[in-house]
Structures are given as structure tokens and as C-alpha cells.
């Protein structure tokens, strides 16, 4: 490492000094004042000038002032003249008595001594740090300047010139004529010069980023730069550290400490206060807060900040507020401050911010770094900040505020609420066992009954998620029986929470819902609106009610007034029922309402339920990109999803979009052995079965589907609205050559689907039964499935090829299942004959035939009168039904109609991004001897009319909400269309729409 150039950017000043020395040698001296901030190289320049003068034959007299000698009269003068024999006689004299004339006292005799030196040879008097000279010496030097203009004497002094919090004393030249004085101020090094200095010292290649960091840490100050380079000479790090602990031997930290000492205690306090506040990030400190925190003169602090910015030690952030130029410099400023002093500064800052009305989180940020305050204002500030952070889903910040709040005085009743929230957050964000002790402590503390219910619900939720559903129910029952006897509304809330948490355990669920149903029959008021909604959900999954009836009951319950604690359970329950009933827009509104009413920092069973419905809604629409982008799947911290339902939906989405390898990795990474025994596990088994099917392993898939069905049936969940395991298992049975078993599963599923009576489940069940049945009768069933699903998808029936055996305009919800429920099974030979296309009679006369002239049952007519759901609610099932219809038409020899159905299926799958479904439709086309459709499936020509209309409005910078209002659509529908549009156009951002929609320009001739 080479020695740094100590006179970089100082050569012009050195030349000035040489010229002044030459002038003095002719008998005309003067005073040269070299001014500059601490560390700008004043001393080095003075030494260079002295060496230069000595080389020219001048006698050099030196003195260096220090704060330790300011009380010694004429100490500086004595340093200058101490080397002459005559000096001893003068120095040994007693001090002049008061009133001694100037021309007769000791100062006069010292002046005459100096003149005698000048008579012998020209003099250069070098005084370093003259601002620290004693008062008598300063007077003597000022008086000498008035005479040396006629003597061969050049007086060169250095003075510290830096804006400090404490105003400095007048400089040496303050009372002198400008003709007698030449002042030169030394500025910090320019960035390019500082970089040159660094590169000249550092051996080898230096990265530009590393050099730039060194320039910022050195602030253009030669002292700090030299010290930093001294510390870096023994290391070859590619990055500059942010802490002085990584530097050796510590020259940089020592230089910064000396810089602070030179500035004085008031400036040091402000500098350290700024460094402490700078820990909180950009935009924290300002002049007013610094002054309050450091106890400094508020009139001087703004000027100090400006001066330090000009010196390069500070740099403004994007908001214009001051920050240290580099974290290493800030760390060095803090280095000499004790931890207790820092905490006191943060407390003063918190109090100052509170008094002037700063944001609660700004105040709390200071309290996090302060010791316990012991006052209620600190408690209030921390809890307010925690509330704001929790509402913004910043769990880590909320945790820090709540933990710190426990160090401050909190009334026992309020403490229980704080512990409940803290325990909930710790459970959700730290680890599953972390928050339970906090929640248990909250349960033990006295407090209002509502807070105790919240604590019990949170603790029960945590226990149930760990697989301890029985313990969770015991907690809630114990609270209800011991503390809520006089609070029937709160008792109902506890019972509702018990019912919801019982989903995590098969035996507990049967017990809880048995009690709930029996109580509701005797005294509905004891169950409450939320409990009745849970019963609707139970009956929906148990196959005991229709979708129309369930929605009527749920809507009536939502219209009733409810207690705030009970209200938290209603939207999620209603949303699940609405999603099953194909009312996807209504379900989405309920999810938004429920999540908006949930406090995410409190553990609540309904929060997870709402998140599950949200992702189920995306899956129901076939919005696979939305499923994979859901926060429960793509977690912000990059970790794999932990919710079994999220994993299940993600696996299916990956399979349907042709990414089976990713789906397999995700499924294999799920810890099935240690997963809680909840309904979500059944979803995972179903999803894994879908994966096995896609991988060509129907036997493994069948095992998963049957196990899913077994577990669901044990929980009284028999309706296909939750997971269509029967239809999936029937397809596996067919693949394995077991038509009888497939037919039994398909017929059972259709009977249950007819009870629920929505297009999605009816169409799916009819499609599966059609495939299992085969022949003309199977084709008739497939036609009916397509007709039902097509009308639900809000697309008109095809006029070029009406479904077999139907007429245009026929009601889509016919009594398709009625002849199949409770009729004898046909023999395997009959089934096989039908699958081979043997025509045993016309569709109207075949045994078990679904005659179209029987009319529509009242239940079906009832569903027709209701809202049939959002477009896309049955889209994925329609694609599968069209594919099944196309295969059956091909088998029946109706190849033209088959091609129409299969090409429509492929086109719909393409728009949906359903790679697997599209591949199935195209495979069926090839098997039928048809070519793949040439219709454009990507690019602007692939857009539907609705997609193009929405895309054009979006390209005009309209928001999704504005487009939805303009076209009278749901916002979700707009988002779905835009997602499909982006995929077809191959773009990712809204800003790319205009260019992507523009027609291609012809190339120049």
C-alpha cells in the first residue's frame, strides 16, 4: 500500500504560501490564515509551507496550540521564542503588574526579541490551531501583525473553521485590516480527487462500487480517508463494512472520535442523536426533533445540518432529510456512546414526537430502542402502533410493538387483550407453539367477558390447528360453563367456535353437530344466527338440502342483526355455501366482507375458512394463475404453503396447466404423516389422486379418491359439492376395466347431485355417468350435461348441432337423475353393449331412459328462477362435458358433431389456460380422424368479443372497477377476462395492452 498524497488539491495554496514567503523575504510580511474544518489538512499544509520556507533560507518558528494550555498566559509565544538564549531572561520575569503600558511590559520585550530574530534572517512563524491559543498570546499575535508588514516576517496560522452548535470565538484576523491578512479556506476533497486518492493507495484492481463507498465514508475529509485506508490495508474485502467492528486497527473510529471531540460536547450530542435516529431509516430525523432529542439550541441545529451536508458528512434522503453519508460513518459516530445514553436519547425523541403529534408508529419506533418508560403514554403509543401494523398485515412490526408494550404498565384487563393478540401473532408468524403460552396466560387473567371469549377462541384455534381439537373444545366449553352463564350471546359465540373447530377431528365433529342440531330443533335462539348458518353448511355437505334452499336460509340469516362476535362467523360460512351453489360473485363479496371484518392479528377459525373459500373460488372458475398467485400458495417469505387446502388447489392447478413435475414436487413435499386430521387433508388426497391420474397411474389415483371418500363419509360429508371423489373414482374404475363399479359410483353421485341441484354438480355427474354408460344412452346423458352447463356458463346453445334428443330452448335442468335413483342396476353385458354403441331402442323407450317429455320437476324450475351464478362457474365442467360428448359422438359415427364439440372444448380450454383439458380435447379430435382447429388461440385474433371490449377499455387507463361499472359486470369477471387476455397476448402488464392490441404494421417495401 502506497502512502497517500497529503497535499491533494492543496498545491495552489502551497504556491500562494511560497509567493508570500518570497514577499516577506523582501521585507514586507503579512498574516496568512489557513482555515478549514477538522481533518481538512491544515496542519499538513502548514508543515509543507514551513519546510518550503526553510529550504529558502528562512528561519522557522513553530507553535502548536492545545486546549490544555489555554489557561497559561503567553504559552504560544513562549513556544515560538523558546529556542533563543535571551528568552530565558524574559520568560523568568514576573507577570506584568496591572496597568503596565504595552511598550514597557513583558509582551513588549518579547516583541523586541522577535524583531532581533528578524534582523538576523527572514522569519516564518507557524502557529497551528491558533483558535486554541491562550488569550494573551492571541493579543500578542494580533499586535505583531500590525508591525510585520515592514519586517521580513511571514506569520502563517491555522484555524478551525467549522459550524458548531456552540458559537465559536472570533478568529485571529477579526480585528485586523484586510490589507494585513490573506485568508485561505480549505474545502473537502472533491469526489473524483478522493477516488483518485483511494485508488493510489489501494494495490490492485478496485471495484467502482467499493471506491464510491469509501468516498462516502470518508466524506472528502483527508483525515477520515487516510484513517479508513489505514484500516483497510490489511484486508481485501470487496465491500465496505457498515460497522467499525470489522475494521482493524481502528484508525477510522479513532479519527471520527477526535473529530467529535474537536467539535465540542453540544455538537457531539447532536451528531450522536442524528446517528441514533438514523437507525430508524430514512426520513426520521429533522432539525426540530434533533434539537429536542439532544437538548440543543434549536436555532443552531438547522445551520449545523446544512454545514455538515456541504462538508459531505451528511447527505439528504429522497425527502430532503439529512442522513449520514455512509452507515460506517454513522456507526463510528455512535461508537463512543453507551447503550444507556442511546436509550435515553430515543426516549427523549419519543416524547418529543408525541408532543408534536407525530404518527404513532414513529413514536413507537423510538420506544422500541428505549428502556422501559414506566408511563401510560408509552403503553398507548405502542398499542396504537401495533394496531396500525396489524391492520396493514405487517405482523413482524406488530409483534415488536406488542412485546415492548408488555414492559410498560398495563391494567390486568387490558393486559389479557394484549396477550391474546400477541399470542395469536406469535403462533401465526413465529412457530406454532410460540403463542400458546401467551394465550393460556390471557385466559387466566381477569378481564371483560368479551375479551375472555376472544382469548378462548384464539387459544382453541391454535390448539385445533395443532391437531388438538378435543382440547380446543374443552377450553371453549370450560369458559362457557364457568364464566358465561349470564351472557347467552357470548355462550353462543363459544359454541359456534366449537362447531367450526370440530372440523379438525372426526369424532368431535359428530358430537358437536349432533348437539347443535338437537338444540336448534328445540330452541333455535340458543344456537344463534351463526350456529344456524353452520347447520346450513352441515346439511349442504351431508346431502340433506338443495342449493336453492340453502341459499335462501343463508341470505335470511345474513339479513338478521347479529352480535359483533357472532357476526365474524357468518360471512365465511355463507361464502362457502354460496360457492358450492355456483353463486361465485356473491361468495366473493362475502369473502371480502368477512376478511375486512377480521382482525388478522387475532387467531380466529373463520379467518382460515375465508382464505380457503377465496382460493376455492379461483379454482371453481378455472383461474389457475390466480390460484397459484394466492398468498396462501405463493407465500411472501418464499416458503412452501402449509395449508393442506392451499397445497391441494395448487397441485390441481399445476396439473391442469400442464406442469405435472412441479405438482409432483409440491405434493411430495407435503408432510402427510404429521398433517392434522382435518377436512383439508381430504382435499389433499383428492388432489394427489388428480396428479396420479395425470401421470397415468389410475390404480394409485383410485386409492386416493376412495380414501378421500371414506374419510369424508365418516364426517357425514357425502355431497359432491366439497370434493367430487366419486366421479374421479368412477373414471379410474373405467380406466382399470371395471365398468360395474364405475357405473355404481356415477349413479350414486348423480343422485346426490340432484339433491343439491346446481349446474356444476349435475353436469359433472351426468358427464361421468354418460362415459360410464356409453352407447346412445350415454350420448343422451352427455348432451344433457352440455346443455345444463352451457346455459349456466351464460352461452347460448349451439344452433348448428343441437344436443342429441333435445330441442332448442329446452330447460337445461331436467329430471335427469330421477329414473336412475332407486332403479335396478343393469347387467355388465347391457352396459358393455351400450358402450359399444349397440342401439337397444330409441332414447325415449330404452329401459332407464331419460325421457325429455316428462317435464321439469319443481326443484329444477326453482333453480331456474334463481341467479344461476357467475359466468365461468361451470366452465371447467363444460369443457370436460364437451370432450365426453365429442368422444361419444365419434363412437356413434356422428363425426361432424363430434368435431364441433371437441373444437369448442379445445378453444374454451385454451382461453382458460387449461393445458390438460385442451390436450384431452385435441387427442379426442385426432382419435376421431379430425385435424386440430386452425382458429387462432393466441394473439389479438384469439380474443373473444368480451375480452377485446374489456382490454380496449383497460388500454384506455380505466380501472377494473370503472370497467365493471361501465359494462355492468362483476369486478372479478373483469379480472378473469384480463388474465385470459394477458395470456393470449403474451404480456404481463396493463401498460403493454395498447401495443399488443394494435394491428401489425406492414413492412416497408
TrEMBL record:
Span list, region Disordered: 790-872
Ranges where the HTH luxR-type domain occurs: 936-1002
UniProt-listed SMART domains: HTH_LUXR
Pfam families: AAA_16 (PF13191), GerE (PF00196)
Matching Gene3D superfamilies: Winged helix-like DNA-binding domain superfamily/Winged helix DNA-binding domain
Keyword Nucleotide-binding carried by entry: yes
Entry keyword Cell membrane: no
Comp. bias intervals (Low complexity): 809-819
InterPro entries (alphabetical): AAA_16, P-loop_NTPase, Sig_transdc_resp-reg_C-effctor, Tscrpt_reg_LuxR_C, WH-like_DNA-bd_sf
Ranges of compositional bias, category Basic and acidic residues: 790-803, 826-839
Domain of life where this protein originates: Bacteria
Keyword vocabulary terms for this entry: ATP-binding, Nucleotide-binding
Segments forming a coiled coil: none
Family annotation (SUPFAM superfamilies): C-terminal effector domain of the bipartite response regulators, P-loop containing nucleoside triphosphate hydrolases
Protein name (record): LuxR family transcriptional regulator
Organism: Streptomyces ossamyceticus
Amino acid at each position: 500500500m502506497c502512502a497517500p498524497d497529503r497535499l491533494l488539491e492543496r498545491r495552489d495554496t502551497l504556491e500562494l504560501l511560497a509567493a508570500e514567503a518570497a514577499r516577506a523575504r523582501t521585507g514586507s510580511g503579512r498574516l496568512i490564515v489557513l482555515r478549514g474544518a477538522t481533518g481538512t489538512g491544515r496542519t499538513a499544509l502548514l508543515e509543507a509551507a514551513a519546510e518550503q520556507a526553510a529550504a529558502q533560507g528562512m528561519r522557522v518558528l513553530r507553535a502548536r496550540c492545545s486546549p490544555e494550555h489555554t489557561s497559561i498566559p503567553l504559552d504560544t509565544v513562549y513556544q515560538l521564542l523558546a529556542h533563543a538564549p535571551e528568552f530565558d531572561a524574559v520568560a523568568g520575569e514576573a507577570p506584568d503588574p496591572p496597568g503596565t503600558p504595552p511598550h514597557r511590559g513583558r509582551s513588549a520585550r518579547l516583541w523586541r526579541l522577535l524583531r532581533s530574530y528578524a534582523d538576523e534572517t527572514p522569519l516564518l512563524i507557524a502557529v497551528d490551531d491558533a483558535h486554541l491559543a491562550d488569550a494573551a498570546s492571541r493579543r500578542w499575535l494580533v499586535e505583531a501583525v500590525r508591525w510585520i508588514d515592514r519586517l521580513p516576517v511571514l506569520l502563517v496560522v491555522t484555524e478551525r473553521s467549522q459550524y458548531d452548535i456552540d458559537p465559536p470565538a472570533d478568529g485571529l484576523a477579526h480585528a485586523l485590516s484586510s490589507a494585513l491578512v490573506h485568508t485561505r479556506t480549505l474545502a473537502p476533497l472533491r469526489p473524483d480527487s478522493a477516488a483518485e486518492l483511494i485508488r493510489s493507495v489501494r494495490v490492485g484492481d478496485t471495484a467502482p462500487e467499493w471506491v464510491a463507498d469509501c468516498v462516502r465514508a470518508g466524506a472528502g475529509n483527508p483525515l477520515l480517508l487516510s484513517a479508513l485506508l489505514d484500516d483497510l490495508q490489511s484486508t481485501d474485502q470487496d465491500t465496505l463494512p457498515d460497522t467499525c467492528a470489522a475494521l482493524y486497527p481502528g484508525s477510522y473510529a479513532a479519527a471520527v472520535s477526535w473529530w467529535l471531540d474537536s467539535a465540542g460536547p453540544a455538537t457531539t450530542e447532536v451528531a450522536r442523536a442524528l446517528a441514533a435516529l438514523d437507525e430508524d431509516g430514512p426520513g426520521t430525523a429533522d432539525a426540530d426533533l434533533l434539537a429536542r432529542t439532544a437538548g440543543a439550541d434549536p436555532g443552531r441545529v438547522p445551520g449545523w445540518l446544512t454545514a455538515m451536508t456541504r462538508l459531505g458528512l451528511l447527505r439528504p434522503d429522497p425527502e430532503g432529510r439529512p442522513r449520514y453519508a455512509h452507515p460506517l460513518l454513522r456507526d463510528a459516530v455512535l461508537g463512543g456512546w453507551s447503550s444507556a445514553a442511546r436509550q435515553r436519547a430515543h426516549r427523549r425523541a419519543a416524547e418529543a414526537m408525541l408532543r408534536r403529534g407525530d404518527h404513532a408508529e414513529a413514536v413507537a419506533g423510538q420506544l422500541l430502542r428505549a428502556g422501559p418508560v414506566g408511563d401510560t403514554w408509552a403503553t398507548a403509543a405502542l398499542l396504537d402502533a401495533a394496531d396500525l401494523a396489524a391492520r396493514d398485515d405487517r405482523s413482524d412490526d406488530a409483534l415488536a410493538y406488542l412485546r415492548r408494550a408488555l414492559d410498560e404498565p398495563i391494567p390486568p384487563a387490558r393486559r389479557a387483550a394484549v396477550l391474546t393478540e400477541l399470542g395469536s401473532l406469535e403462533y401465526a408468524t413465529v412457530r406454532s407453539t410460540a403463542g400458546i403460552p401467551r394465550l393460556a396466560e390471557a385466559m387466566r387473567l381477569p378481564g371483560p367477558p368479551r375479551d375472555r371469549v376472544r382469548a378462548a377462541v384464539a387459544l382453541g384455534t391454535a390448539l385445533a390447528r395443532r391437531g388438538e381439537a378435543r382440547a380446543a373444545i374443552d377450553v371453549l366449553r370450560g369458559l362457557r360453563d364457568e364464566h358465561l352463564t349470564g351472557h347467552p350471546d357470548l355462550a353462543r359465540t363459544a359454541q359456534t367456535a366449537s362447531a367450526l373447530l370440530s372440523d379438525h377431528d372426526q369424532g368431535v365433529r359428530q358430537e358437536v353437530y349432533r348437539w347443535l342440531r338437537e338444540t336448534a330443533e328445540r330452541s333455535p335462539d340458543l344456537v344463534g344466527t351463526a350456529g344456524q348458518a353452520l347447520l346450513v353448511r352441515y346439511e349442504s355437505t351431508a346431502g340433506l338440502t338443495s342449493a336453492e334452499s340453502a341459499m335462501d336460509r343463508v341470505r335470511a340469516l345474513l339479513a338478521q342483526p347479529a352480535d359483533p362476535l357472532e357476526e365474524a362467523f357468518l360471512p365465511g360460512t355463507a361464502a362457502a355455501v354460496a360457492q358450492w351453489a355456483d353463486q361465485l360473485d356473491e361468495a366473493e363479496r362475502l369473502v371480502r366482507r368477512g376478511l375486512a371484518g377480521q382482525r388478522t392479528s387475532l387467531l380466529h377459525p373463520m379467518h382460515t375458512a375465508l382464505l380457503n373459500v377465496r382460493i376455492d373460488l379461483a379454482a371453481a372458475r378455472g383461474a389457475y394463475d390466480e390460484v397459484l398467485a394466492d398468498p396462501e400458495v405463493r407465500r411472501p417469505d418464499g416458503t412452501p404453503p402449509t395449508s393442506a387446502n392451499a397445497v391441494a388447489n395448487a397441485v390441481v392447478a399445476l396439473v391442469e396447466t400442464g406442469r405435472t413435475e412441479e405438482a409432483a414436487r409440491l405434493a411430495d413435499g407435503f408432510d402427510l404423516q404429521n398433517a392434522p386430521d382435518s377436512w383439508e387433508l381430504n382435499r389433499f388426497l383428492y388432489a394427489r389422486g388428480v396428479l396420479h391420474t395425470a401421470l397415468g397411474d389410475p390404480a394409485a389415483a383410485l386409492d386416493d379418491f376412495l380414501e378421500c371418500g371414506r374419510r369424508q363419509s365418516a364426517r357425514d360429508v357425502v355431497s359432491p359439492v366439497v370434493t367430487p371423489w366419486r366421479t374421479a373414482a368412477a373414471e379410474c374404475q373405467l380406466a382399470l376395466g371395471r365398468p360395474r363399479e364405475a357405473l355404481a359410483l356415477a349413479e350414486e353421485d348423480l343422485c346426490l347431485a340432484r339433491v343439491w341441484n346446481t349446474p356444476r354438480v349435475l353436469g359433472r355427474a351426468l358427464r361421468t355417468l354418460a362415459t360410464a354408460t356409453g352407447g346412445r344412452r350415454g350420448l343422451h346423458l352427455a348432451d344433457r350435461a352440455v346443455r345444463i352447463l352451457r346455459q349456466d356458463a351464460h352461452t347460448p346453445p349451439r344452433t348448428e348441432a343441437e344436443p342429441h334428443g333435445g330441442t332448442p330452448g329446452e330447460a337445461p335442468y331436467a329430471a335427469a337423475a330421477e329414473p336412475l335413483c332407486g332403479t335396478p342396476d343393469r347387467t355388465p353385458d347391457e352396459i358393455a353393449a351400450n358402450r359399444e354403441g349397440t342401439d337397444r331402442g330409441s332414447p325415449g323407450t330404452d329401459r332407464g331412459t331419460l325421457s325429455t317429455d316428462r317435464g321439469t320437476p319443481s326443484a329444477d324450475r326453482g333453480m331456474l328462477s334463481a341467479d344461476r351464478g357467475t359466468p365461468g362457474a361451470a366452465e371447467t365442467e363444460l369443457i370436460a362435458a364437451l370432450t365426453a360428448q365429442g368422444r361419444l359422438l365419434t363412437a356413434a359415427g356422428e363425426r361432424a358433431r363430434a368435431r364441433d364439440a371437441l373444437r369448442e372444448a379445445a378453444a374454451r380450454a385454451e382461453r382458460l389456460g387449461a393445458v390438460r383439458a385442451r390436450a384431452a380435447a385435441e387427442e379426442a379430435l385426432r382419435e376421431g380422424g379430425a385435424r386440430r382447429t386452425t382458429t387462432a388461440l393466441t394473439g389479438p385474433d384469439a380474443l373473444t368479443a368480451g375480452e377485446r371490449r374489456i382490454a380496449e377499455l383497460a388500454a384506455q387507463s380505466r380501472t377494473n372497477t370503472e370497467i365493471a361499472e361501465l359494462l355492468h359486470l362483476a369486478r372479478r369477471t373483469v379480472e378473469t377476462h384480463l388474465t385470459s387476455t394477458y395470456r393470449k397476448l403474451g404480456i404481463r402488464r396493463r401498460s403493454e395492452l395498447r401495443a399488443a392490441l394494435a394491428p401489425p404494421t406492414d413492412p416497408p417495401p
